[in-house]
Amino acid sequence: MSWLSSLKSVFSPSQSVNEEAIQQILQSYVLPHSQQLLKDRISQVNVQGEILQITINTYPEEKSHLQQIHDELADALEKCGIKELNMHVIQQKTGQAKQESCGHQHATGEGCSSNQAQAASSNLPPVVDAAGQSSAQEADPNNPPIQKAAPQQRDVPKHPRIQNVILVSSGKGGVGKSTTTVNLALALQELGLKVGVLDADIYGPSIPTMLGNAGKTPMIEAEQFVPLDAFGMPVLSIGHLTGDHNTPVAWRGPKATGALMQLFNQTLWPDLDVLMIDMPPGTGDIQLTLAQRIPVTGAVIVTTPQNVALMDAVKGIELFNRVQIPVMGVIENMSTHICSNCGYEEQIFGQGGGDKLAEQYDIPLLGRLPLNVSIRENVDAGTPSVIAGDDAADSYIAIAQQIAKKLPKAEKDHNRIF
Fold first, then answer.
1. 332 in Cβ contact with 365 (< 8 Å)
2. pTM: predicted TM-score of the whole model, two decimal places
3. What is the Cα–Cα distance from 79 to 22, expressed in whole angstroms?
4. Which of 32, 199, 289, 295 has a Cα-to-Cα distance from 322 of 20 to 30 A?
5. HEC sequence for the chain
């Protein structure tokens, strides 16, 4: 099956992408070295949202033209709604492109534009050579393979009204991450900071229930969501848009990440010192989208002492390290349980897990939280511990104080006169 005949089955573009125009560009583009049509070299095409991935076959003598091919295609496809082009190259080890089609005589391996200097720019999405080097002789020190660089945190523009974004992540579900998020947000507000909460758990939103505004929907003003209020904090979740507790969000990855970016960018957030984002479990599409498109101050890892939870927490920390998001510390949840009848203390999920994780990655252990029935009862009732003032409230306040100390000082705008 050709790439063109299978294109429909792998195409999942956003509404702003013109599918027919993309097909026309890919079918009509002429390779600069051999004058052959690009469509005869394409082995795979995939479009997800506004990102196009394309795999093509090339020959060694075309190596110097790969960046030119990428840049020309990227410029043409941008008009069709494609914002990012990932071009994967499979270099054929035998044979070479037809030279007679270009109308000139060349030495072996020399292209029509081999004397043109290639512009180097860190802002341009480069090309990936998927074939690799088969021997040391094939490596050319003067023309190293172009590596594709993923978007970096340092390149993501800051939100105009949000000073700091903190991710609360776990790597797995069931460790009390959402409960920790809402209580830390309320605790930071108690410390005098302006705090908001964004529920990034698209498939399992629980923030509306925990903050007591489930079933409410946000107003829309100037085509933007107006966040709901919860104990003085602006809050927004996909759960506020589905209307009830029973509607499943059965979306594929690109649509889920698109919904997250819409909640972040198309919301009238007030001026905030901190936006707490409740992350979904795992290390998938949502996490990568956040790392590449939302400016993040740091991440807080929530785990239990149990070995299985620690294994997944390690994966979360490794992901954040790779995408240059600082890990602010570890919170050990369900650390200990005190029997309400006899007062006996027991470490149901093990002991010392948070300490080992903190020591392994040289990050602070921000605090331990108890396994307490009042924590569960209060969030189920929509009045988290910090609001209810239960036995765990002081623990959340103490952790919030440590997080507040790690926030960068707000930069003063010297252009303002008041």
1. yes
2. 0.62
3. 9
4. 199
5. CCCCCCHHHHEEECCCCCHHHHHHHHHHCECCCCCCEHHHCEEEEEEEECEEEEEEEECHHHHHHHHHHHHHHHHHHHCCCCCEEEEEEEECCCCCCCCHHHCCCCCCCCCCCCCCCCCCCCCCCCCEECCCCCCHHHCCCCCCCCCCCCCCHHHCCCCCCEEEEEEEECCCCCCCHHHHHHHHHHHHHHCCCCEEEEECCCCCCCHHHHCCCCCCCCEEECCEEECEEECCEEEEECHHHHCCCCCCCCCCHHHHHHHHHHHHHCECCCCEEEEEEECCCCCCHHHHHHHHHCCCCEEEEEECCCHHHHHHHHHHHHHHHHCCCCEEEEEECCCCEECCCCCCEECCCCCCHHHHHHHHHCCCEEEECCCCHHHHHHHHCCCCHHHHCCCCHHHHHHHHHHHHHHCCCCCCCCCCCC
The whole-angstrom separation of Cα 45 and Cα 283 is 25
**Exposed (0-12), middle (13-18) or buried (19+): which is 73, by Cβ within 10 Å?**
buried
**In this structure, which amino acid lies at residue 315?**
K
Q: What is the largest CA-CA distance in the chain?
A: 93
Phi, psi of 335 (to 5 degrees): -70, -40
Decide: 114 and 64 in contact? Cβ < 8 Å: yes
Per residue in 282-327, pLDDT (tens digit) is 767 778 878 888 999 999 999 888 777 778 788 888 888 888 899 9
Q: Is the pLDDT of residue 111 over 50?
A: no
The β-bridge partners of 329 are: 300
Asked if residue 96 lies in contact with residue 59, where contact means CB atoms within 8 angstroms, the answer is yes
Strand partners, 168: 278, 300
Enter the tokens of residue 11. 């195409």
Q: How many CB atoms lie within 10 A of CB 216?
A: 14
Q: How confident is the model at residue 134 (pLDDT cuts 50, 70, 90)?
A: very low
Secondary structure of 111-164 in the HEC alphabet? CCCCCCCCCCCCCCCCCEECCCCCCHHHCCCCCCCCCCCCCCHHHCCCCCCEEE
**Amino acid letter for position 227:** P
Which structure tokens are listed for 70?
């990428």
Confidence of residue 145 (pLDDT cuts 50, 70, 90): very low
What is the dihedral angle through the alpha carbons of 215, 220, 225, 227, rounded to the nearest 10 degrees? Answer: -50
Judge whether 334 and 304 are in contact, CB under 8 Å. yes
